[in-house]
Amino acid sequence: MRTHQQPSYILLNRPYSETSWIVEVFSREYGRIALMAKGARRIKSKLKSVLMPFQPTLLSWTGKGEVPTLTAAEIDLSDFNVYVQEMTGDALVCGFYCNELLTRLLHRHDPHHDLFDRYHQTIKSLSDPENASRLSSVLRGFERTIIKETGYEVNFVHESDGKTPLRDDGHYQFHAGQGFIRMPHPHNNTVSGSTIRAMSVGMDENTPPHQQAQGKRIMRDILRHSLGHKEIVSRALFYPKAKPQPPK
């Protein structure tokens, strides 16, 4: 089977032999797939500058096996303003975080058109320096889409019974498989109903900091259930360990 010029993003590259890569790809029509990029590790390979994360690409491949062979790759010039070098600092870490979620949560060969479009817009937002102050809201939107697309949708409007509307002044705790359960008193693991309702419509740069912090915690709880025992490695990049100080 031959496939030509599919809109795709590179999630990661894994060395295979001394000259090749196994490329993890997120394509719009074929979902997450793995491709054999023969010769991509060679010094003079033209593929190196194309097979980079966060660049919109057009990929072609052939083969019926679990790992088809990449036959052509080029940058999608219809969105030429999106390049990895434009993403730095926290924005770059956010990009790796999104890639890790896709790699861990998506099954192979399962298309997700809406999620692909959301990822495309997320990368564009992360690449724009003017969005440096709203990285948190950009990630919350992507997280909402990926949990919905992978079958872990959560009701952000009603309590766990699916009927009672969330109260802005209520205090809730998330329980996997049930939803948000109202607690009689606030404690460290509860979030306000107003925060959950804000997440239902989408947080932005105008969302109060305390609600953004609570929203981040909610999504961590939801994703922890979705991922099982898998840890998100890229999160550690936000909190680098301090280098040990030499003895005085």
Automatic annotation (TrEMBL):
- What are the alphabetically sorted keywords of the record? DNA damage, DNA recombination, DNA repair
Q: Which domain of life is it from?
A: Bacteria
- Gene Ontology biological process terms in this record: DNA recombination; double-strand break repair
Write one Pfam family the protein is assigned to: RecO_N
Which is a Gene Ontology cellular component entry for this protein? bacterial nucleoid
DNA replication/recombination mediator RecO N-terminal domain spans which residues? 1-75
The free-text function statement in the UniProt record for this protein reads: Involved in DNA repair and RecF pathway recombination.
Protein family (similarity comment): Belongs to the RecO family.
Q: This chain belongs to which protein, by name?
A: DNA repair protein RecO
